[in-house]
Amino acid sequence: MTAEFSVEKLYDDLVAHQLIVPVGVQGAYGRGAVFEEVVERFNNLVSEIAKNDGAITRLFPPLVNRKVIEKHGYLESFPHLCGSVFSFNGKELEAKQMAAKAAAGEPWAEHLHQTDLCLTPAICYPLYPTLAGKLPEGGALYSLLGWAYRQEPSPEPTRLQSFRMREFVRVGTAEQVVEWRDMWLQRGLDLLQSLGLDARSDVASDPFFGRGGKMMAINQKEQKLKFEVLVPVISAENPTACCSFNFHQNHFSSKWDIQTDTGATANTACLGFGLERIAIALFKTHGFDPIRWPTEVRRRLWP
Amino acid sequence: MTAEFSVEKLYDDLVAHQLIVPVGVQGAYGRGAVFEEVVERFNNLVSEIAKNDGAITRLFPPLVNRKVIEKHGYLESFPHLCGSVFSFNGKELEAKQMAAKAAAGEPWAEHLHQTDLCLTPAICYPLYPTLAGKLPEGGALYSLLGWAYRQEPSPEPTRLQSFRMREFVRVGTAEQVVEWRDMWLQRGLDLLQSLGLDARSDVASDPFFGRGGKMMAINQKEQKLKFEVLVPVISAENPTACCSFNFHQNHFSSKWDIQTDTGATANTACLGFGLERIAIALFKTHGFDPIRWPTEVRRRLWP
Hints:
Number of strands of chain A: 14
Oligomer: homodimer
Strand content of chain A: 25-35%
Structural class of chain A: alpha+beta
Shape of chain A: globular
């Protein structure tokens, strides 16, 4: 790795400019005012591009019904990334014991029980159960924004345990959703390139777990079910996925009985912009003070 | 409870107007486009009111370092509300067992371990550790926005398990932070009344756990450490706290060694607007379609 692409230097620079704020756990940083301004401006730009698409806005909390995780098969594909909310239901005596242990730095996990909520691993997960039934003619389109959790502590500032995605979800026939996915793949590429980023698209696969996961990843690539728009941020050889485009076929719709207007099982696709990754790509590419960014980039974000 | 203040009818009305979207777990609803528009407009109004205060913006994820929960004594006061993130660190065979249990609807909690992250119970919690050391002269002021978790499933649409607060935190001498708190108590009251809400302020206490908690609540009230701005939403007799104003004295600053410019232990206070509660108070008071809200309310939110 050259000095130009040092993970440590990028992290240090982001901290020195108060763009991210250390919190003592990797990938759970606070964000500073300028970082948030860039995230907000980029998100506004996405909204501007999509403004005539007729998307329905839905916003879900960072938590999802645990049944959704169980039913989507998330634990078969990504057991290592999942997060489950545990809470306390005991009485006063046990509460005292638990608090005493926590204060003494001793383990207190045994006093907690698994709740009905998991951390949302993908922003579109909570949407699918709400779509059960018949779609209108032409299908439907949703706009989402939310916080995802993945258990992957890392020194890379682009690999967060808690991060935001701006997503769109298209539901309809296979033809409709693939056409829409292809349109957005071009839109995403154009958008990132218009911001002066060295972006390119490629077929991709998800980080499936274990040996069985390797076959799933090969399958996914062969069927071209996942594309990414990549930008060099922490490495020239391994550019960072900043947008992701996924064709789920009937994976979600069959589980929740989502039907097209003719009663056939629907197909779904989603795309997501990794808001923190795109902000960091901009800082890495153009410098840590947006006032000095190239005029054409500034004009695009602050129109 | 009169029909005018029926919890069930309010919930049904919010769902019927797609302001909230059921997800199968109480208090974890999705939010619709119009709901989000009202939340955003109200939050913008708060920013407008605070624009000359010189607050520093910080944004933290919905998760907080578990050490912060342990060190703040959260488990002594609110063990019943806490949320802790559990994840999976096992190998392939165990992952298969876990996934099989989850798919069969059997318990799978035993395969998870407690991570370094908890769910943020109060938006200002992650801020305090970042303030360790000496403050500038005059202290400091922070603006925050975030998602809080509290384990309290409830049929009341105003009592959520996952919700947003817009917060400000003042750090300085006791005199500085109390003066600031008093100023915002009046600002908060004026703001909600200007939106046509039947708001009043009152001294309040936190929902401390157990019998010991009752004494803590009485103490807190006697010392006037907590105030709320209340609006009737689900009951005339028990109005809903929509803003909360807390004087922490040196509770947080002593734990993290936050000092005034003279080296004395600082004092802290925070205030928070419950964004979902205020949106629901507006819908309950003015009706479920903002286009029909009183002109002066619309003009204030859509200037």
